[in-house]
Write a structure and sequence with these properties.
binds pyridoxal-5'-phosphate, 2 domains, Aspartate Aminotransferase, domain 1, alpha/beta, 7-stranded mixed sheet, Aspartate Aminotransferase, domain 2, 3-stranded antiparallel sheet, single chain, 15 helices
Amino acid sequence: MRTEFLPFARPSISDGDIAAVTDVLRSGWITTGARNAAFEEAFSRYVGSAGAVSLCSATGGMHLALRALGVGPGDEVVTPSLTWVSTVNMIALSGATPVFADVDQDTLMVTEASVAGCISERTKAIVPVHFAGAPVDLSGIRHLAAARGVALIEDAAHALGTEYDGERIGKQGTAIFSFHPIKNITTGEGGMVCSDNLALLDQIRRLRFHGLGVEAYDRQTQGRAPQAEVLEPGFKYNMTDVAAALGTEQLKRVDAFNRRRSELAALYRERFAEVTEILPLGDPDYRFKHSWHLFVVRLDTRKGGMGRDKFMAGLKERNIGTGLHFRAVHLQKYYRESMGLRPGMLPNTEWNSDRICSLPLFPDMTDADISDVVDAVKDVLAHQGGQ
Ligand SMILES: *Cc1c(COP(=O)(O)O)cnc(C)c1O
């Protein structure tokens, strides 16, 4: 058994990252400024988008995107329940109603059919989630959104470097990325909205800083309008230059990170092929490139003779960290009680929510770490099965 705990995720921070951050700290300008502009430009160039706006989190980006699109009371937003709670919370806080589309049993992503079944006269936006590093099948959903005149905002928190039909996520439409420490690159905390709708980006840029017409950086160094005016009440969701400098350095290594993630995932798949209690996710049947944000498996609880929570506890006892992405949102206390939601409404989501588990996956992992995880999984199943 491992003597040292293996976390399920850990950021890869280089000396170059640290030097870039200390440079900012010594520069005399540490909040939103030139480094944010540079990070936005580099990020936009990487994904191929028309523009990008940096934020203090992807959650903040989702809040502002919904607000800029005018989503409010009386509106419905279609999104999966098998997602991080942040998106659904932002929909609820905007006063709109989340409408949950079930996911494909094996890719854990919404489909054109599941989304179509949730569209009504009140639908204002569709927010699909690219899951674990694979892309949603966007083509049909794009057509559906265009035909029904509803906005499409992609939750791309898992999808930096992911490609759909030969194109990076973020190049077309509106997509929101996250730089939380477990994501494919990190800024400590942070997010980015990419869009081909430049008017939308302008509005998000304004809303991220009090709704003022110009940025703090412009006000102090460029000598523009000495006292900018509030054009509409805004928030305080800007990213610091300390974070942006880290992001710019991390972005230079994203392809190398993703290559290593992909090698590790291939190794897991090979080693788990003979472990029948462990069901990997299915690959999409359309053209795509995976960014391997997470390595998610489902435990066959019948064959394994135990529930998922016990399986995770068994791994923890063996010094292996795990994550749970995600516990179905529609069955969590607030949504259950406020919306009258019950088990049975989203069969694929619920089946997976009870069985999924994310195993350790991060670029600095060694092949030996993968062996430790696989051995621990086999050991948990051997020792606790049948109980
Ligand atoms: C991480 C995550 C978010 C939120 O990102 P933050 O930067 O932490 O706000 C949103 N959606 C999904 C699917 C995520 O995994």
